[in-house]
Structures are given as C-alpha cells and as structure tokens.
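User: I'm curious whether this sequence folds into something compact or stays loose and floppy. Could you predict its structure so I can see for myself?
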Amino acid sequence: MSKPLAPFDKLRAYGQIAAGTHRMRYLLALLALLFAVSPAPTLAQIGDEVLPPAFVETLLELPDDAAQAAKSGKRLLLYFGQQGCPYCKELMQTSFTQKDIVDKVNKHFVAIAFNLFGDREVTWFDGKVRSEKEFAKFLKVQFTPTLLLLDEKGGIIARINGYYPPHRFSAALDYSAQRLERKRDFAEHMKAVPQTGASATLNEQPFFVKAPFDLARKPAGKPLAVLFETRHCGPCDELHTEGFKRDATRAALARFDVARFSLAGRENLTTPDGRRMTAEAWGRELKISYTPSVVFFDDRGKEVFRLEAYLRPFHFASSFEYVASGAYKKELEFQRFLQLKAEHLKERGEKLELWR
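Assistant: Here's the prediction. I'll summarize afterward.
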C-alpha cells in the first residue's frame, strides 16, 4: 500500500526480492503493479465465513496500511475472530448491520480481520513477520471477538474484548475516531456509556405472518414485504414505535403479506420462489447488509425493491405504496416517485411532513 513506483523502478525493486516464503506474495503484488491495476477490495473471510464489506483485504503489512490510512485521516481497526464463534457472529449480525456503525467504520477506520488460528503472514510495526496465530499471541489476544484500535504509529489505544452491544460498540469506536485518548483512558471513557440501549428482544406486530412460514407467491395474489431485523437495534425499535404506528403506513401494509425474521433466525421457511431454507440462510443469500431492511417481492416471487436501513415515516410508508401500486414498473427511481408524490400532495394543499 506504499506509493506507486515508476515501471522500471517496480521491476528493479521486485527483481531483488529473495526467494523464500515471501516470493509468491511479492510476485502477485508485482503483477498488480505492472498492469497498473488497483483491484477492488475483496470480501474478507475467516474460514468459510464471509465478513461484512466494512472489512478490507490488504497485504497485511500493517505499517504501510497505517500510513495509507492516515492519508485519509483514518486509523487501523484490527479484528480477531474464529470460525464458529457465537459472539463474533453476534457482533457481525447485530453491530455491523447497523448503518450508523458501518458508516462510522468506513469514515474513520481501515478495518482488517484476522483469524485467531490463521497462517497468513503479518508484518507488525517492529518489522517482524509473524503468522496470524503468532501475531495474536504477540498482541496477547485471548478472546474472540477482540478488536484493537491503533493510533497512526501502531500504538494500541483501546482493546475491545468480547461482544459489545451496538450502542457501547459505537461509543468504543468514538474513542479512536475522536482522538479521545488525548483526554482520558479507554476505561474511563466507557464508564460514561449506559449499559443498556436498544431492546434485547425483537418487537412483535399483529400483522406479521405466523408459522409455518410459507411465503410462496401466487399470480394475482398479494405482494410480500419481508423485514429483517436484529436484537439491540435502535433503528429497528424506531421502526416499530414510529413507522408502524402511522395511519398511512397501516393502510399501505394492508395491501401486503408482511413477514419478519431475525438475521440469526433458525426457523424454516418457504421462500417466495418455493425453496426451503432457514431465515438465516435466506438473509445471507439476499445479502442483507443492514438492519432493519425490507425486501419486497411481487406476486410471482420476484424481488422488485428493497429498503436498507429505516427511513422516516413518509418515506417508509411511500415505499409500500411504490410497490403495491405497481409504480416501480413505470418509475424506476424511487426518489423520483417520492418527488412526484410530494408535489401532488402540495398541489392538493396537504401539509407534507418529511421528518415527523
């Protein structure tokens, strides 16, 4: 991730690399340089588990990663996990599906994932190369998940051991993002954060489809709206306390079958196109990245629209109208549909509340 070299300098630099365990690694880097291509970051993985897009793949040369991050005002966030770790899964499905947290990570951090028992080679700020498992021992990582927040020089300013619910995890990120280590230590910072936040259970609604969850569609039948949520999700709570309470939303909901699942749901269901799987597997297949998310299907079981993250009541209710009315077939841009609707309401002299 260092400054690009001129073509002949590239050849000269890489031509001097000694054979050995690093040879293939550098040859791959050379190919990327010679073709002057900056490949898009691939999805990071631990074992067979794919991590959220907030994590990026690098050559794991952390001094270079830190220097590159600093150019954008960012710092490194190191995540240590292992396949089959339930607390890691909770962190990824609950915290890393909330838009405010994902936006904060993308804005302030370069997030890199490590396998506690992995074998990839990592270069630390002391210049030494270690395997992932040796690297974890070197940094005294004993739990998963563990996240380390580094300063620009590789100093560990905060250590997040274990699972933090979203409101506390977000506050922990603020400690680095706001450079608060200059004012107080991490433990003092976290003492001021409430222990409880969003609801630890999912909210229920009487209009949700009940088990058995047969979501298969029939021509000329109702369209389907599928809500994906997680526990400890503030925007999910807001959707239930505000979005679902509005008359306009209730009227729009009446034109749909509405199903709700947790991203970690173990219940079996029949998908709109007639396949059997668990709610968790279906959420992964649909690539749900944020909670709450609503995925809309037509009467033939085809996805036609989705909302990722909760919108304010006017926009939320309008999304159901957009699908139920069939407007999505003629007006492909949802924002244009909203604009036309707003103009129509104003022409009729109705008061338009976009936020309340």
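Summary: Residues 54 and 103 are 9 Å apart (CA to CA). The chain has 14 helices and 15 strands.
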